[in-house]
Design goal:
The protein is of the alpha/beta class. The protein has twelve helices and twelve strands.
Length: 331
């Protein structure tokens, strides 16, 4: 099957990583093409089996740019076109009648994207995201997945104090500000590493200094060693205001010793109640984990054993391919 993915974002985050993972896994058995805005420099981990096409970023009403994109679709001549996110889906929706292949789109969050109400086939990354679609098309829920990697034992120095990490782009939607406020209330010794880059760095740095937490909370920047980091801290914390289906959570289900999250989309569908915490009770939850760490570790280990198989990338890709085949048959 010849598959063409298209994502029109100008940054690289969770959704882009999901698309890249899908492309890499699908390319093992299929002819996969990926269209991205810019020069594609953020997709350095893309498999050599995937054909990467780059186009200059444009708005959906630029007729010349849209014509060039349509010409690219016709040149690729895929069996199916899969758009990701609202922007790419809006662009392709304007030329759907001329596209030489059936179209399917993925909605990666519940916050925006009226265009998905107009499309015939939409994949939602969680049940909550699926509920945000109000159209009359066919909607499918497929969770994000990963291909687990081996963890090296003892490659990092184990901290002597209770250790936490939070991972994601530094953006207000990730709720790192309220996590920092919460850990300032803790009554035990700890360290918190926040791994990621983004526009909120300056504000978070000021907050850390204002609260006198420079020795406890670190803004660590980008890292490609997320599995290792997760495996060697006591708890991974997700304090997000909103999520579609967090790839950090999926990674935590394979690598973390304990993972807790605010009750965002995806997390409420996968995690047991004891691993969920309201935004105003983050400190309370972390205090409880500190005091009952062994119990949390045992219970989280059991949760991982129950759920891991559904988040293996090869199984997620199989779900996609099954839907592609149905869509291509005019389902």
């Amino acid at each position: 099957m010849k598959i063409c993915h298209f994502i029109a974002s100008s940054q690289f985050g969770g959704a882009e990583k999901v698309v890249m993972n899908l492309c890499n896994e699908m390319s093992k058995e299929h002819d996969v093409h990926l269209i991205v805005f810019g020069n594609g420099e953020n997709f350095q981990s893309l498999s050599s089996k995937v054909t990467l096409h780059t186009v200059k970023e444009f708005k959906r009403y630029n007729p010349m740019a849209i014509f060039q994109l349509l010409r690219l679709f016709k040149k690729i001549a895929p069996d199916i076109i899969h758009t990701h996110g609202a922007k790419a889906s809006r662009i392709v929706c304007t030329i759907e009648r001329w596209i030489p292949a059936p179209l399917i789109a993925t909605k990666h969050n519940a916050r925006k994207g009226k265009v998905f109400n107009r499309l015939k086939h939409v994949i939602a990354v969680s049940k909550q995201v699926a509920l945000s679609i109000r159209g009359k098309g066919r909607y499918y829920t497929i969770y994000n997945g990963i291909e687990p990697v081996e963890i090296e034992s003892g490659s990092m120095e184990s901290p002597k104090v209770f250790s936490m990490c939070a991972i994601g782009r530094l953006d207000p939607i990730k709720g790192f500000d309220r996590l920092i406020d919460a850990v300032a209330q803790l009554d035990f010794d700890y360290i918190l590493d926040i791994v990621g880059e983004g526009k909120a760095y300056t504000d978070l740095d000021k907050q850390i200094r204002r609260l006198g937490l420079e020795d406890r909370v670190k803004l660590c920047g980008y890292s490609d060693a997320i599995p290792q980091i997760m495996s060697e801290v006591d708890v991974v914390v997700m304090s997000s205001v909103s999520e579609g289906f967090s790839l950090v959570m999926v990674e935590a289900l394979f690598y973390a010793n304990i993972f807790v999250s605010t009750p965002v989309s995806g997390a409420i569908e996968v995690l047991d109640d004891q691993f969920l915490m309201s935004a105003d009770a983050i400190a309370e939850k972390l205090n409880d984990i500190y005091r009952h760490k062994e119990r949390y570790e045992n219970d989280f280990r059991q949760l991982k054993e129950r759920t891991n198989n559904r988040f293996l990338l090869q199984n997620v890709v199989k779900e996609h391919i099954d839907i592609y085949k149905k869509v291509c048959k005019g389902w």
